[in-house]
Amino acid sequence: MAITKDESAWPIISLSLGEAFDQETVEEYIAYWEELLARRSAFGLLMVHSAEKNTRPERAVTQLYMNWCKMNKREIAQYCSGIAVVMQNAKLLAVYKPVTALSTKRTYGCPGGAFSGEAEAIRWLEEQLTKAPSGMKT
User: Which of 3, 42, 83, 99 is deepest in the core (most CB within 10 A)?
Assistant: First the structure.
């Protein structure tokens, strides 16, 4: 398995994609997204970014994922209350924090934020989850 997921704090899901965003990881990630959306229930996604460096994925891999996001954006926006990205690397956080909200909204249709720690990210996700009735976001 390329991704690590923890649903013990449902509706907040902790997810780590590991070091490589390769074809195997993307296919597994998309399958998991589809599983989450099939539940038809609101959830928040806590993405733990563990890589010290930000390596670019292959163009075809990125295209596959972005095409899937475009096709499913409406449903993602309906059920995903927010995506919080935790980046322990201060340099990466400084680069991505200002653009995460806009890029997440554009790609997924839901709120997004970048955080230096999990506790802060979880508080933000809990706040997002209270803003809409479970599974009935509009």
Answer: 83
